[in-house]
Amino acid sequence: MDNYQNKLVFVGHVGAGKTTAIRSISDVPPVSTEMPMSSEQIDGKLTTTVALDYSTVELDDGELLHIYGVPGQKYLDFMWPMVCHGAMGIIVLVNACSPQKLTYAALMLEEFSKLAPHASFAVGVTRSDLVPSFRLDAFRNDLITKGFRLPVVKVDAREPEQVDFLVKILLSSRFVGSQIASA
Ligand SMILES: Nc1nc2c(ncn2[C@@H]2O[C@H](COP(=O)(O)OP(=O)(O)OP(=O)(O)O)[C@@H](O)[C@H]2O)c(=O)[nH]1
Ligand SMILES: [Mg+2]
């Protein structure tokens, strides 16, 4: 029987940085199925993950964390329950460049909190360096207004230290019991 206790899931829309984040912190070469983008490229991104990303990372205490990346598009939602089953943490990645970032984040949080009611949640905003007008505190407040009070941080998915920090925020919130709190 698999042990799902140490399962962490990254979810987000195309280009949110799931594959990049998982690569950044993996101890082993991640499993992912990259295919050329069928529609127009997004900011030079040439490939998209057609199924899941999967990898592992060893925590400081020797615990092995299983990390999955799952697409956030609604038409792929059949994958969500199996990936989320028993997950202890879910990180929603949103692309700061996306005009729909608030809608996407709220939708993901709503859907995934139903699928993994015992998981801890955090939101990572990627690519904020490309949007000088982006304000993290305003985004965090917008999520609170929509009913989601949880850790929200900027993260450059290409930077292992930043992704590691986000994972640590999530792991620490597990001990203080911060499932999604109603605002
Ligand atoms: N400038 C900038 N680029 C970033 C940042 N975070 C991630 N990226 C880039 O954004 C792109 C994210 O692409 P992926 O990691 O493939 O995104 P994904 O979520 O796996 O996308 P799909 O598999 O298509 O659903 C990559 O080109 C990263 O290098 C950031 O904070 N700043
Ligand atoms: Mg991907």
Characterise the protein shown here.
- There is one protein chain.
- This protein has 183 residues and is of the alpha/beta class.
- It has a single domain (7-175), classed as P-loop containing nucleotide triphosphate hydrolases (Rossmann fold), CATH 3.40.50.
- It has helices at residues 18-25, 80-84, 101-115, 136-145, 160-175, and strands at 7-12, 31-36, 47-58, 64-71, 89-95, 120-126, 152-154.
- A seven-stranded mixed sheet has the order 2-3-4-1-5-6-7, sandwiched between helices.
- β6 (120-126), α4 and β7 form a beta-alpha-beta unit.
- α1 crosses α5.
- The mean pLDDT is 89.
- The structure holds guanosine-5'-triphosphate (GTP) and magnesium ion.
- Magnesium ion is lined by residues 18-19, 49, 53, 69.
